[in-house]
Amino acid sequence: MRIGILTAGGDCPGLNAAIRAVVRSAFSDGVDVLGIRNGYLGLFENDVEPLTRTSISGILPRGGTILGTSRFNPAKNEQSIPRMIENCQAHQLAGLIVVGGEGSLSAARDLCRDHQMQIVGVPKTIDNDVCGTDYTFGFDTAVSIVTDAIDRLHSTAESHHRVMVVEVMGRHTGWIAAHGGIAGGADVILVPEHPFRISRVCDLLLQRKQQGRAFSIVVVAEDAHTHADEDFLTQEQGVSFYHHDRLGGIGEALAAEIERCTGIQARVTKLGYVQRGGSPTAFDRILATRFGIKAYEMVRAGEWGHMTALRGTRIVSVPLEDAVGDLKRLDEEIYRVAEVFFG
Ligand code: F6P
What we know:
Helices cover about 40% and strands about 15% of the residues. The protein is an alpha/beta fold. The protein folds into two domains: about 1-140 and about 280-325, Rossmann fold (3-Layer(aba) Sandwich); about 145-275, Rossmann fold (3-Layer(aba) Sandwich), CATH 3.40.50. The strands form two sheets. It has a seven-stranded mixed sheet with strand order 3-2-1-4-5-10-11, with helices on both faces. It has a four-stranded parallel sheet with strand order 7-8-6-9, sandwiched between helices. The protein is elongated. 6-O-phosphono-beta-D-fructofuranose (F6P) binds near residues 71, 125, 126, 169 and 222. 6-O-phosphono-beta-D-fructofuranose binds near residues 101, 170 and 171.
């Protein structure tokens, strides 16, 4: 028996741990694993490599993905699907494991539902925005990186009596901003789920200054928006920050507006791809490993159209249908915790 595995969408720490876990559990069962390069694109282009004990040796702590990835989406390239199916048949794959975020898992759901492909999904993303699972792997590492950056920015903010604006990723949700901001002790956290008013942000910062705390840390998620009634962005800024596949830029405009309104010097740090790079935390290594092992068990059991998920402390199987379509928005309880420390 032979199965295939691919990693699709943006990379994140823990992908190699998941690949290793799938391959190790398959090998101990006498099953071969075919690695498909660069996500769905490799399935279309028939770009594959048999995975061996040697190819997965030493990859557990490594960031990125040994298989490579791409944002090639079969849903947007319908004509590629027959070829993908043919290639699965040519390699006699009994099933396919797709390790991906919301977009790649939606594609997996469609391929199972509309084209009878045999796929098990594994959710990964630093954004933690996949429904059906409490956590995706990659998120914990990103939060650690943000926390470490905020700790470092604190000391320089304090020395210079500045406002430090830290722009973080997260796509349309505020998980990274809220968790990183709480762990780093941010004074204001701006997330897509709660449009913000610049007047309120500036009031909080001035209040801190009056209380003798002349420095502040503001964490802003890349897709955080202003309230329509207090929009300080130009039309071009609005288009360039939000209306592209690639989000980002709000931090710079926010810092400029804070400086203009409060008279306090403000600087911005955009953490960018640093949040996705490097070695996974122990939590992500373990979660990715548990997901990989569960995914293999699901393939053995023929649970097509399902994905692995963390519910509480248990790893379970959930229908892809329930996991994709909507994004998992930031938990309100987490936001309320963050809010206690504003100002
Ligand atoms: O989904 C992960 C993520 O890093 C988001 O946080 C970010 O908005 C996006 O990917 C960046 O995408 P790309 O790798 O295509 O630039």
